[in-house]
Amino acid sequence: MGNTVSFTKDTYNKDEPIIIYGASVYGELAYLALERLGLTPTYFCDRSKSKKEYFGIGVINPDMLEDFREANILIASADFFHEIKQMLEEQRCLHLFDMAELLDMDLPREKMSNRALEMYANKRSYIDIVKNQSKGDLIFNRIQFVVTERCSLKCLDCSHLMQYYQQPQDFELCKYKEAFDCLVEQADYIAELRILGGEPFMNRDMGKVIAWYHDNRKIQSISVYTNGTIVPGEDILRELQKDNVKVHISNYGINEEQIKKTVKVFEEKNIEYFVRRYDSWQDTGSIAYRNYTLEEKKEIFGRCFERNGYAFLKGKLYRCPRVAHAMNLHAMPDVKEDYVDLLNWNGTKEELKKQLKSLQGRLWLEGCNYCGGPDNHTQSIPAARQISKPIVYETIDT
């Protein structure tokens, strides 16, 4: 497989249509960049069945690309960049472009949605994925290192299932370091290591993860995802000051006063951060079993915003953070195909790499049976609705 070409006014074929693959936030940035160049895409392309138009331009299904193999196809996605690229190559699309140079343009921020502003501020992630697309065959765009089950908020609709933990605990991070080292050793490249919980700053040892992996050549950047309600201690603040470390703060409206205190400290310490306002969330539904058919599980997984949200929890690498927490809660059976057990691995390095690639190749998870099937494009419920106590659920004897 070859590399993509960065789209510019000089690199694309002017006799063929321009198609932006991705009718979401990166598609928005691609559209604004093309507009700055005086160009208009012919179509957007996306797997979503709900979107018929985006910015007034028709959205076609990927199956229709058979009629556009000579088109200029611009990959407008970071999380699914490699997946889309492979699919387009299998469909024998000839002219594949990335948007690395487009993102380096000065784009009109006043026209951007809140999500687009966040992605534009963190455009380095997309550019690094493009730059390193030939690093090897085991590439992760992002891996979430879960450091705690505890959270300072009690959100009814948390997609990571924090609302079900009756007695949440911090994790003993040193216990799982060797397992994560094993993962990093097998990976060819990790674009972003995300540290989160729950609320990651509730675990006072979470700075160790930054200290362990900040200088690892395979890990491009480290991000901490927080709701901003806790000002971390000095040990953690020192780790957050390091290069290529950034903090993403989620503003739900209910936590604005605490965020102001946290941001004030970050600015005093010259810590890179970004605040994103959330007014709505994608609905993942309850943790109840749904008994989907195989085709239903494939459809749900195919449109899920977390299908490449690899989560490292208690020494295991899961394809989906919701599945990771569902198993941790014993709310679903222990389905070994949905994860790789790095903590108890006793095979060869070659066998481990094969297992990790097999996990990357999954087209559905048994854990999809315990999810309402969120649509990557539909945010349909208010963000961060609070509850007074954890939700009672039925556990499964695993």
CATH architecture of the largest domain: Alpha-Beta Barrel
CATH class of the largest domain, please?
Alpha Beta
Enter the CATH topology name of the largest domain. Answer: TIM Barrel
Average the pLDDT over all residues and give the rounded result: 94
CATH homologous superfamily (4th level) name of the largest domain: Aldolase class I
Low confidence ranges: none
Report the biggest beta sheet as strand number plus sense, adding barrel if it closes: 9 strands, mixed
User: Measured on Cα atoms, how large is the radius of gyration?
Assistant: 21 Å
Cα distance, first to last residue? 42 Å
Counting DSSP H or I runs of 4 or more residues, the number of helices is 12
**Topology, number of strands:** 18
The portion of residues forming beta strands comes to: 15-25%
Total domain units: 2
The arrangement of helices and strands along the chain is EEHEEEEHEHHHEEHEHEHEHEEHEEHEHE
Fraction of residues in H or I helices: 25-40%
Structural class: alpha/beta
Instruction: Categorize the overall geometry.
Output: globular
